[in-house]
Amino acid sequence: MVNILGNFNRAALLGATLLVLTILILDGNAIDGTWFNAFLRFFHALVGVLWIGLLYYFNFVQIPTMPKVPAELKPAVTKYIAPEALFWFRWSALATLVIGLAIAGAPPQLYLVEALTFQEGFRNIGFGMWLGIIMAANVWMFIWPAQKIALGMVDSTPEAKAAAAKKAMLFSRTNFVLSFPMLYCMVTRGVLG
Length: 193
Known about the structure:
Structural class: mainly alpha
């Protein structure tokens, strides 16, 4: 078991295998368009958990802890952990957004326009969608470009690195704040409209 769970790729493969078995056992007779939509919803939730989980990791753990890390240990975070976390962070943000819009815009739902224009019955999901769009835009347009500078992935001065780190933190905090109403709207979508 250590050979499987001790290796990320093997553990991920095991999880995917269990997912396929679960689908075949529980829904094997109903693999059609409705099932595909349900699977998209599952995948949307999966990448959304990754995105928001990393957002919370940055805001609950990394940002508050970095000032306490001794200078000689900071490169371990800035050169190895942060770039990897930011890779998954930005791509899970994009995947969450694209899959969410696809779910809303594809049959049998077809509620994308109604949600984005806050029509009756779609206000919660519409508000959540707009918050998600803003948050994903923040990731790609502000956080990631600033982090590349702050982490030294592009040449810049120490002053530019410090300014970029502050900018990335402020936009990350903005997304942190927006995540609360966004998650509320997504969770209450089917219950409250």
